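WARN no homologs supplied; continuing
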Amino acid sequence: MATEKDKISTKAESKTKIRGYGIELNDEKLSRIDKMVESYEKRVAARLDEDYELHTKRSDRVADKVASFGGSWTFIIIFATFLFLWILINTLAFLGVQFDPKPFILLNLILSFIAAFQAPIIMMSQNRQAARDKHEAIIDFAINYKAEQEIDDMQKHLHRMEAEIAELKEMLRERE
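OK structure emitted
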């Protein structure tokens, strides 16, 4: 059974003080703060996604999906399987079927078409993603700049308060 001393030490360990303010935060308050920050982050992410959906055309979103699939392991595995079966069927001539004998000219044509269409689509998607990243970076910069300005204002206020306190101390010394 826990003694009274154990309960007090457990309570003391679960509290955190904000330096310079003497404000105590217990686990419940810290949990609430974490939930609020998480909620805010989700709202910002949802807003950015909503903004993306509103300001992109359907063709742009299709290009993004093609780029996403074209750069995935699923695509690589499916495409490797397709190439292996193509070469296997045309090399071994299963059931007398050999529609593209060596040197696989039809396969080269198909690969050229895929490369010719897939590369520009992926580049379009990357350009849009770069523009989106730039927009988010500008937002981050604005937030950081605003925070820096507020910190500077607080420091000026603290310096002014320190000067006033020093002045009051000097006045008290003179009265003694």
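Residues 1-55 form one domain.
OK
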